[in-house]
């Protein structure tokens, strides 16, 4: 499969880019990472109405409300990180409730099988032989389920097991499980409940944001996974090359702009860039073999990291050392002997230090 086809995408509601599913099984067999497509694609909106095509697909449209919606997330998942960042940047903590899953998925000998997201606040013994408890993890406070797949089944969805999930507590239905669309909803439909002055999707910048979102997804957010999860050397090397070319482009952009599309405050494009870059030095550099450079070797990107991690009062919980611990457990605890790296030292606090040069 050519690199052009490998990087192609398709658009859903709000122009959200997802992986092209053409010959997906064959491409995976050849060692390419092809991300699946989320199927719960309903929408919270104040003004929009579904098109005839969307009505034919069974899309349901929900009204904005405080306390009605709930999110199921895993801190180690970069796609969940998006929706948590939106919630924090917009100050919606008292509007949308959250439950946090364990960073490692189920084993094959568990009741519902393996590779399933689960609620496990009591912790478990990992591959490294250590019993790991993460204080941020919760039970399912809404439905009392043990596994995310049970949440889907209750809502009548049998082909999904991914997170994040935006859930309607009133009707007990899954509103949406596409992170990009959830971010868009929080930044537009839930604006009346927002407590910060950040506009994630300003009207005058929307075409630029959409274009930047598409590029960030293909080359960095999903591009990192194409390197890290490829079992084909050529595919890995292409993804590696594209990823670091993208970082070079970012360094140039941030030499001219404080944020991606030239605004004084972060937009949706910046939000969607933060999860992969937050993980680059402490996780992706080794786990995904993206080891050409550390982020601190890019002074303009590093400055942006500091601006992003301090852009709103409630950013600390979703950019903290505790949050990073979930990331390390999730990525390293599922492979080999499950040994979790102690270093690199100083992360993620160093993102706020413009003079940091590694250890």
TrEMBL record:
**InterPro entries associated with the record:** Glutathione-S-Trfase_C-like, Glutathione-S-Trfase_C_sf, Glutathione_S-Trfase_N, GST_Omega-like_C, GST_Omega/GSH, Thioredoxin-like_sf
Which PROSITE patterns does this UniProt record tie to the protein?
Answer: GST_CTER (PS50405)
Pfam families to which the protein is assigned, alphabetical: GST_C_2, GST_N_2
Query: What is one GO cellular-component annotation here?
Result: cytoplasm
In terms of Gene3D superfamilies, this protein maps to:
1.20.1050.10, Glutaredoxin
Single GO MF annotation: glutathione transferase activity
Q: Where is the GST C-terminal domain?
A: 202-331
Binding, glutathione: 117, 178-179
Site Lowers pKa of active site Cys: give positions: 284, 331
Positions of the UniProt region annotated as Disordered: 1-31
Active-site residue list: 77 (nucleophile), 225 (proton donor/acceptor)
Q: What is this protein called?
A: GST C-terminal domain-containing protein
State the organism of origin.
Cylindrotheca closterium
């Amino acid at each position: 499969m050519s690199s052009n086809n490998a990087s192609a995408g398709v658009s859903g509601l709000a122009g959200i880019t997802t992986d092209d599913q053409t010959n997906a099984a064959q491409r995976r067999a050849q060692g390419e990472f092809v991300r699946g497509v989320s199927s719960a694609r309903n929408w919270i909106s104040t003004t929009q109405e579904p098109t005839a095509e969307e009505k034919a697909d069974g899309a349901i449209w929900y009204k904005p409300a405080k306390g009605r919606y709930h999110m199921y997330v895993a801190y180690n998942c970069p796609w969940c990180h998006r929706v948590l960042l939106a919630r924090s940047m917009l100050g919606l903590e008292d509007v949308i409730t959250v439950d946090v899953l364990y960073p490692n998925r189920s084993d094959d000998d568990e009741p519902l099988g393996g590779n399933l997201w689960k609620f496990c606040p009591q912790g478990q013994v990992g591959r490294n032989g250590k019993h790991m408890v993460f204080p941020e993890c919760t039970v399912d406070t809404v439905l009392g389920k043990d596994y995310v797949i049970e949440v889907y089944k209750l809502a009548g969805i049998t082909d999904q097991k991914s997170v994040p999930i935006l859930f309607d507590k009133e009707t007990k239905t899954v509103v949406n499980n596409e992170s990009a669309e959830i971010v868009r909803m929080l930044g537009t439909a839930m604006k009346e409940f927002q407590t910060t002055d950040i506009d994630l999707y300003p009207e005058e910048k929307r075409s630029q944001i959409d274009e930047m979102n598409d590029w960030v997804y293909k080359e960095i957010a999903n591009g990192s996974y194409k390197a890290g999860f490829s079992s084909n050397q050529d595919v890995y090397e292409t993804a590696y090359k594209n990823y670091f070319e993208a970082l070079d482009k970012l360094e140039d952009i941030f030499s001219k702009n404080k944020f991606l599309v030239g605004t004084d405050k972060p937009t949706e494009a910046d939000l969607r860039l933060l999860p992969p870059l937050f993980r680059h030095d402490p996780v992706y550099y080794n786990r995904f073999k993206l080891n050409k450079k550390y982020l601190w070797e890019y002074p303009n990107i590093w400055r942006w990291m500091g601006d992003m991690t301090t852009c709103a009062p409630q950013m600390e919980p979703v950019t903290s050392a505790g949050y990073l611990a979930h990331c390390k457990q999730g990525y390293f605890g599922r492979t080999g002997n499950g040994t979790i790296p102690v270093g690199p030292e100083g992360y993620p606090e160093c993102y706020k230090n413009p003079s940091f040069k590694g250890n």
